[in-house]
Amino acid sequence: MAKKDVSAVVSGAGFVSSFWANLDKEVRKRGGSDEAIYEALKDDSPLIPRFAELVVEMSRPKNPSLLIPVGTAMVTATTTLFVASDRFVVNTEKNAPVKISYLGDNFMDWFLGKEEQPFGGSTLNYGRLSRSSLDGPIIAKLGGEAKAETTLTELFSLMEMQKNGESGPLLINGYANIFYIRDVNGVLRAVSAYWNSDGWRVAAHSIAGPHWWGGGDQVFSRNS
Questions:
Q1: 19-48 exposure pattern, b = at least 16 Cβ within 10 A, e = fewer
Q2: Model confidence pLDDT, tens digit, residues 120-153
Q3: Which residues sit opposite 82 in a β-bridge?
Q4: Contact of 70 with 218, CB cutoff 8 Å
Q5: How far apart are CA 197 and CA 173, in angstroms?
Q6: Prediction pTM value
Q7: CA 34 to CA 16: how far, in whole Å?
Q8: Which of 28, 35, 51, 217 has an alpha carbon 20 to 30 Å from 77's alpha carbon atom?
């Protein structure tokens, strides 16, 4: 039997039609709607690069290290008390201190009551996930909670450097920037910041929960 011309199959109308039909079927099975499909797959959707990364990830023959080092980020010292509720405010105006378009319910419940003392500055490591992962393996790869733990002050300082989606250590391509931060009750949580066209979207998840991060997402941690 002759070998298929894979390029021709992938570009063919039948292949594309079949893909969309199967995707629609799976979305409906999970209670999704036309609106959900549109929001997930419109031109500026962050899901498109995530899906592309998943396709490439599935074709990789090797199993690289979970975290691929990228670089370090300098965070300058602070001299005033960091009050989370004063800094993390939804504001998409041009003159916003940091353009923030969304704060998740968990983030607001767990972090908006938190205050952090001034600190002397820091250097954070950051690296990309080579494949999808839960928080447990990521924290273990970083060397445990002490090495993984960062602060709201550090997260906000980096967001402030890229307040309108400028280039910098934080990804602005729809992938997650992941920080492990203790909440107002001292519980270590996973906090994510995504840049969307209208600003930063900040959310929080339990590190014991079933939340999966995708290949290409970026993790920040202690330099020493």
A1: eeeeeeeeeeeeeeeeeeeeebeeeeebee
A2: 999 999 999 999 999 999 999 999 999 999 999 9
A3: 116
A4: yes
A5: 10
A6: 0.74
A7: 18
A8: 217
